[in-house]
Design goal:
CATH architecture of chain A: Orthogonal Bundle
Helix content of chain B: 40-55%
Number of domains of chain B: 2
CATH architecture of the largest domain in chain B: 3-Layer(aba) Sandwich
Distance between the termini of chain A: 41 Å
Shape of chain A: flat
Structural class of chain A: mainly alpha
Number of strands of chain B: 13
Strand order of the largest sheet of chain A: 1-2
CATH class of the largest domain in chain B: Alpha Beta
Strand content of chain A: under 5%
Largest sheet of chain A: 2 strands, antiparallel
Number of helices of chain A: 13
Number of domains of chain A: 1
Distance between the termini of chain B: 69 Å
Largest sheet of chain B: 7 strands, mixed
Helix content of chain A: over 70%
Oligomer: heterodimer
Order of helices and strands of chain A: HEEHHHHHHHHHHHH
CATH class of chain A: Mainly Alpha
Strand content of chain B: 5-15%
Radius of gyration of chain B: 26 Å
Radius of gyration of chain A: 24 Å
CATH superfamily of chain A: MetI-like
């Protein structure tokens, strides 16, 4: 018995070792190094100077940090609202209306596989007030009053940069939720309906609790995806004007690679990691509480 | 031994082999390099004088490497890749050069688009893995590399080059590559001139004269706007082209030249002139001189495109964009002085922004590597050659090197630029004078905000000044 156990341990270590080494070298080690850099003043070239928590203290007085944090949290909120709810809604419609479901599933998923750079460039052109289609469409449907310079108007710029990203990834959640709906046992749904539950009651009290874990995973993906957002904002506006359309990821990149302030840039990276952990833990806690009920 | 154990051992062995395999090439190269170096040293021992010994080391090192079948590898990095206006003029010459030295040198060309290229060089600098030679900007852009001692004092290159000498270049062009220690760390290639273009056909069509003052400009702008024409195609995205236009207007004010020169040695950005010019630009935005959407119409390409599409009557650009101006637009374009701003005292028709903007830097460690030295000098000689320079001129480049450039072979717009510049005093711009990347970046993003009225002129100036502390 003991011999078998020893052999099993050897096999387990053997299988895990490559993955642990790769994960440590490419994930854990860089994270630890970034954490160390965040306590230094470093331009990426000359020697690192240990400055303790000075970079984090600087953040408290950095207007640009607070603005990009606010932009990021707004993106997280809107992503959760639109991507998860639209994802659920459209997936449910595809689930109950099976005619053409395959086509629509592919059509909705299509934007997900397009490079964010291409989406960003495409929307930049759409938004252009001289040659773009958005203003022309608004005018043609009698909503000319809503015409604006989408990316040059301080009131609309953040929304204009957020919209393509939120739109692009709705398809991902549709696919996840459609798979989740299809995994719900037909017997349970049928039993509920025999017991007199209508479609709405079946959805909220039978299906949703059954796919709770899928919703939870989707919310984690949605939040972490939003926290590390970069591509769309960088392509469309480079986070500008100023940092009006920048998220933490964009501000971190600009600080590190444009301003060559790798110490401060690393501390911004750590903040992104910490926020991701906090959000994940809070959601996990909420999910556990629902599971207990 | 059971099958599970065999599989796990196999996986571990595979992992170890792959990790070892990754590390084997540099080790092999390093062995080859040291053998070459040994051969070089032996050859050098036969030389009689110290000078000839040094030369022998270089020659023998390259030859030894070639004899051994190990060509010297030189990495040349540039942003003149496909899509860049210089690509068609650079790449064929590069291929010719690459072929001519193929027996002894393996010249590896790395190209990236401009913004990616800046990031690449910064990342490579941080990882101490700079290319052997690379085209790059000077001033604040190369400061960190100079401070870290990564770049070669170009006098060392000129001393070892048989074909390229300091005297071949316009002496003022080295100013941009002069670091705080007084030494120069870049060989200048490209100088440039700021040009304010006006579409003569549109002015004729609406019976307008070219504006000489800001009041004239306002009158022209009214007419153009009434007819759906944007008066001046200048946006601001990442500070282009607004930053250079800002500098051009700045130079219209008394004392600007001294203030700009003082900036490299710690002088302030925040001056009365700086606030005045920021105010001028914001007034121009409010008066509808520029496209309404200054972000999407910012950047060199989009700004120029409005002009070349004849949707705008005027624009401000630089010769590196001439490749994008169609011939018919070149014909109907005139270069005119920027209208005189209210309260300015330097006659705008007598000045023009003109400065060194680009060149190449040499990796000091590579230059001092005896195995690479000779080959590296050859690649540098190619980059600074008359042949390549003359070809690049055809793309719309103003050369820093004194070469014979046939006037009639150049683009029409370039001929007009040369004619216009004849009686102009060249003035500097903030881009080459600001002492750090951070300051340039703050100016760029501040101007983007200024153009959308998201920041006051005073706040803009303060934000840039804050980076200089």
């Amino acid at each position: 018995m003991k011999k078998t156990k020893k052999r099993d341990i050897g096999t387990i270590i053997g299988f895990l070792f490559p993955a642990v080494v790769l994960y440590s070298v490419f994930m854990i080690l860089p994270l630890l190094m970034t954490c160390y850099y965040s306590f230094t003043e470093w331009n990426g070239i000359t020697a690192k100077v240990f400055v303790g928590a000075a970079n984090y203290a600087d953040m408290l007085h950095d207007r640009k940090f607070w603005q990009t944090l606010q932009n990021t949290l707004i993106l997280v909120t809107f992503s959760l609202i639109f991507q998860i709810s639209f994802g659920l809604l459209i997936a449910y419609l595809l689930y109950i209306k099976t005619k053409g479901a395959k086509f629509f599933r592919t059509a909705y998923f299509l934007p997900v596989v397009i490079a964010p750079v291409a989406i960003g460039l495409m929307f930049s052109l759409f938004y252009n007030s001289e040659i773009g289609v958005f203003n022309k469409i608004l005018e043609s449907i009698g909503l000319g009053i809503l015409k604006t310079n989408w990316l040059s108007n301080p009131k609309t710029i953040l929304g204009a940069v957020m919209a393509p990203q939120i739109w692009q990834y709705i398809g991902l959640y549709i696919t996840i939720f459609l798979g989740a709906f299809q995994s719900v046992s037909g017997d349970i749904v049928e039993s509920a309906q025999i017991d007199g539950a209508n479609k709405s009651q079946t959805f909220w009290h039978i299906i949703i609790p059954d796919i709770r874990n899928f919703v939870f995973i989707s919310m984690i993906l949605c939040i972490t995806g939003s926290l590390k957002s970069f591509d769309h904002a960088w392509i469309m506006t480079k986070g500008g004007p100023g940092v009006r359309s920048a998220y933490l990821g964009v501000y971190m990149y600009k600080t590190s690679f444009v301003n060559s302030d790798f110490g401060y840039g690393s501390s911004l990276s750590i903040i992104i990691v910490v926020l991701s952990l906090i959000f994940s833990q809070v959601l996990s806690h909420i999910n556990d509480r629902f599971a207990d009920k | 031994m059971n099958s599970k154990k065999l599989i796990s051992l196999g996986l571990i062995a595979g992992m170890i082999i792959s990790v070892t395999g990754c590390g084997s090439s540099p080790a092999a190269s390093s062995t080859a390099a040291s053998s070459s170096a040994e051969a070089a040293t032996k050859a050098a021992e036969t030389a009689t004088t110290a000078a000839s010994a040094a030369a022998a080391v270089d020659a023998a090192s390259t030859k030894a490497a070639a004899d051994a079948g190990n060509k010297v590898k030189i990495v040349l990095a540039t942003n003149w890749g496909e899509g860049d206006s210089k690509y068609d003029y650079f790449y064929p010459k590069f291929q010719e050069f690459q072929k001519s030295v193929a027996d002894t040198i393996d010249v590896e060309l790395e190209t990236y688009t401009t913004e990616d290229y800046k990031t690449k060089i910064k990342t490579q600098t941080a990882s101490e893995d700079l290319p052997d030679v690379f085209t790059y900007w000077g001033g604040g852009m190369m400061k960190d590399m100079c401070d870290a001692g990564l770049l070669l004092d170009i006098d060392d290159y000129f001393a070892d080059s048989a074909t390229v000498k300091r005297d071949d270049f316009d002496p003022t062009s080295f100013q941009y590559y002069t670091a705080s220690d007084g030494k120069q760390y870049g060989v200048p290639i490209e100088s440039t001139r700021g040009v304010f273009l006006a579409n003569s056909e549109l002015f004729k069509k609406y019976n307008l004269e070219y504006p000489k003052t800001y009041d004239d400009l306002k009158k022209c702008a009214e007419v153009f706007k009434k007819n759906g024409i944007i008066p001046i195609a200048i946006g601001s995205n990442g500070g282009t082209p607004s930053e250079f236009f800002y500098s051009e207007i700045y130079n219209q004010y008394s004392g600007a030249e001294d203030e700009l020169n003082a900036m490299t040695s710690g002088g302030p950005f925040k001056t009365d002139n700086a606030v005045k010019v920021a105010q001028d630009l914001q007034d121009m935005v409010k008066d509808g001189m520029f496209p309404e959407d200054t972000v999407t119409n910012g950047g060199w390409g989009p700004s120029l495109q409005l002009y070349t599409d004849q949707k705008a009557a005027m624009t401000y650009t630089y010769p590196w964009m001439y490749e994008s101006i169609p011939e018919d637009i070149q014909k109907l374009s005139d270069i005119i002085p920027i209208p005189q701003m209210p309260g300015s005292s330097v006659d705008s028709s007598t000045i023009e922004a003109g400065f060194t903007v680009y060149g190449f830097l040499i990796n000091k460690a590579s230059f001092e590597d005896t195995a690479k030295h000779d080959a590296l000098v050859k690649v540098c000689d190619f980059l600074a050659s008359d042949d390549l320079t003359e070809n690049l001129v055809l793309s719309g480049m103003v050369p820093c090197k004194n070469v014979d450039t046939a006037y009639d072979k150049q683009k029409l717009i370039m001929q007009k630029t040369i004619d216009y510049a004849k009686d102009k005093k060249l003035v500097q711009v903030h881009y080459t004078k600001l002492p750090s990347n951070e300051a340039i970046s703050a100016m760029d993003s501040g101007l983007d905000e200024l153009f959308i009225n998201g920041i006051s002129p005073e706040d803009f100036v303060d934000e840039v000044q804050d980076t200089l502390k």
